[in-house]
Amino acid sequence: MFKLACIGLDTSHAVKFTELIQGPAKNVDTLQVVSCMRFPSPFQSEADQDKRQEIVEKLGVKVTRSFAEAVKDVDGILVEINDPTLHLEYFKMAAAAELPVFLDKPMADTVENGREIYNIAKKNNIRVWSSSSLRFTPEIRECCASVKSPILANVFGPLGKAPAGSSLIWYGVHTFEMLMTIMGPGAQSVFARKDAKGVVATIEYKDGRRAIAECNEGCFQYGGRAQNAETAKSYNVNASTAEILYSNLITAISDFFVKNAVPVSFEDTFEIQAMLDAAEKSVASGKAEKVESL
Predict the structure, then answer these.
(1) Domain span at residue 286?
(2) I need a labelling partner for 96 at 20 to 30 A (CA). Which of 120, 142, 195, 252 fits?
């Protein structure tokens, strides 16, 4: 059994992922979360973290406030911290422990910190990947299988309000993850504007392709459309339960830790971060902004 430490208790993922790994609804037999580190966070009250602690403890997880204690005698780390401003700090600690890491979305709070995570991982030969669960939903996989080499795409998803930091980077990552899944890499520039309903971004690609990403306030559906010269395919994601939304991601996490698979390249993940960064800059500047590269 591959033993994991979960770092962070301020996201529902810390509970939901543990339940899918070793609870009654589990869908893998290869992993076990044995420890969890918690700490104060603007994203979740201490009282609510207490409730989450009770749930994971019933699943056999030891909860601590010490990173060193949490990662002692484990084989890998789940960085499940809702606050992306802390991702670089805790990735540095994980890298020092020389353990493979799943870094929950978004990869970082800024493109600069995302680049530093990449450089640390490369320098220290640390296996790491990051992704939103939206990439792995059956609906988007069917869409991608139906439309080969798309030249146009439109994706939409919610824009949640971040208790701290950028809402676009914190929650818009889901929508941009779907965009990357459909279109692949090669984004060149982003023009984004904010209105009463959220943020709408137009993404131009180096080869002339185009995409639109809508991050919508007050609407909680995920979906989109992919199109090439011959066909178009729309999809809507069923996000009604954690089992439906996260099961394929948990399988990918298992494959990463146990089979040394690379579910998503770091280069693609960095481009998602760079598109979000460009979108945020564009909202502020009122003009198209360049998508940075590694």
Answers:
(1) 133-242+271-290
(2) 252
The whole-number pLDDT of residue 241 equals: 82
CA dihedral 257, 262, 268, 274 (to 10 degrees): 20
Taking the CA atoms of 104, 239, 252 and 65 in sequence, report the sign of the dihedral they define.
positive
Domain end point (choices 86, 117, 132): 132
Whether the CA torsion 76, 78, 83, 85 is positive or negative: it is: positive
Handedness of CA 217, 223, 226, 230 (dihedral sign): negative
172 and 286 assigned to the same domain? yes
Is the pLDDT assigned to residue 244 strictly greater than 90? no
> Using CA atoms, how far apart are residues 275 and 189, in angstroms rounded to an integer?
8
Whether residues 32 and 93 fall in one domain: yes
**265 in a structural domain:** no
For residues 35 and 241, give the distance between their C-alpha atoms in angstroms, rounded to a whole number: 25
Does one domain contain both 83 and 224? no
Strand partners, 187: 205
Q: What's the CATH number where 93 sits?
A: 3.40.50.720
CB 145 within 8 A of CB 174: no
d(CA 113, CA 85): 9
pLDDT digits (tens, 9 = 90+) for 74-114: 999 999 999 999 999 999 999 999 999 999 999 999 999 99
Rounded to whole angstroms, how far apart are CA atoms 29 and 227? Answer: 38
> Cα–Cα distance between 31 and 9 in angstroms, integer?
19
Q: Which percentage of the chain shows pLDDT scores above 70?
A: 100
Apex CA 121: angle with CA 117 and CA 124, to 5°?
Answer: 135
